[in-house]
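Anyone up for a design puzzle?
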């Protein structure tokens, strides 16, 4: 098989499995290096191994692919990484409103995320890097966000519309961590709590209601902030009045995100039920921080389907025109 294809498939599988970002990045880097090399270097094992960005593991994958073999490591990963789940609801998803690039804490450039979304058949992808307060994630200052917006939209084409967005922090008083005028320039605004997750229920409820009542918020991201598995350990759900928060979401046309990351499973099943009863819209999103994580939408779709969420109440099943009209309403 083609060596570049083998390296990229390994990277994608590692990303879907949420393996170390450095492992996946090494295989993507090796693929990029290999694409840039002249044929005489690629065909010379000694010179190839000396190239910066080609390590022992990636070199072995390249050599096995050059020998006409499926590399051993790729065969192993194909047998270990859970394949994408198929469901009627997943097949109806048209896009993704929550993804990150290396402008904040994602692992790859905008164009690599866009290429992966296009390969999955998405009709639209929102790039929603973090806002300034989340410094650990290299949140975007107003100046950097202004610089990013035209670069994101310029990647549209070949059947995919790339939407300029943000995952904006909900501050302790419910304000949003970005300039209001700048939020108004964006196509999609996902609002999420990332700090003071153990705040008492009453102030947390007020905080979240204030945020979803903002006219530019479209999606309430991973509403409880919990972690149920994974390399970051576990974290309990934030406490708030879900009926009050979801009633505010419904009143303001804000979609409750069903976050597709297996380590989050957020909202919990019982909260999806409450949001359904309160008349909420939903958005099934990947929260992808790497190209291979865009396919995690199948996890969110499976949870939504099991909870009985009607497809017509999931905004990411809507066509682009309807989605845009809702987002600007």
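Challenge accepted. My sequence:
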């Amino acid at each position: 098989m083609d060596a570049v294809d083998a390296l990229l498939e390994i990277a994608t599988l590692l990303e879907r499995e949420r393996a170390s970002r450095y492992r996946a990045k090494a295989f993507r880097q090796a693929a990029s290096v290999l694409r840039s090399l002249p044929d005489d270097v690629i065909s010379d094992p000694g010179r190839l191994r000396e190239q910066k960005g080609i390590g022992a593991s990636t070199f072995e994958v390249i050599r096995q692919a050059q020998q006409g073999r499926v590399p051993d490591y790729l065969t192993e990963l194909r047998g270990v990484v859970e394949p994408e789940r198929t469901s009627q609801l997943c097949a109806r998803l048209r896009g993704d409103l929550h993804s990150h690039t290396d402008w904040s804490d994602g692992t790859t450039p905008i164009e690599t995320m866009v290429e992966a979304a296009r390969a999955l058949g998405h009709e639209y992808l929102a790039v929603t890097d973090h806002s300034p307060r989340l410094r650990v994630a290299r949140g975007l200052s107003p100046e950097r966000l202004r610089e990013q917006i035209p670069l994101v939209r310029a990647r549209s084409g070949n059947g995919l519309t790339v939407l300029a967005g943000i995952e904006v922090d909900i501050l302790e008083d419910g304000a949003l961590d970005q300039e209001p005028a700048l939020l108004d320039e964006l196509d999609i605004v996902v609002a999420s709590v990332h700090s003071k997750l153990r705040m008492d229920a009453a102030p947390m409820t007020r905080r979240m209601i204030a945020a979803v009542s903002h006219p530019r918020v479209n999606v309430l991201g991973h509403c409880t902030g919990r972690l149920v598995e994974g390399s970051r350990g576990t974290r309990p759900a934030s406490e708030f009045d879900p009926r009050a928060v979801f009633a505010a979401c419904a009143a303001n046309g804000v979609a409750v995100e069903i976050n597709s990351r297996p380590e989050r499973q957020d909202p919990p099943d019982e909260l999806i039920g409450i949001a359904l009863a309160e008349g909420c819209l939903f958005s099934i999103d990947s929260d992808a921080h790497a190209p291979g994580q865009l396919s995690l939408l199948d996890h969110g779709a499976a949870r939504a389907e099991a909870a009985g969420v009607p497809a017509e109440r999931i905004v990411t099943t809507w066509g682009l025109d309807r989605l845009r009209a809702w987002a600007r309403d």
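A detail worth pointing out: The mean pLDDT is 97.
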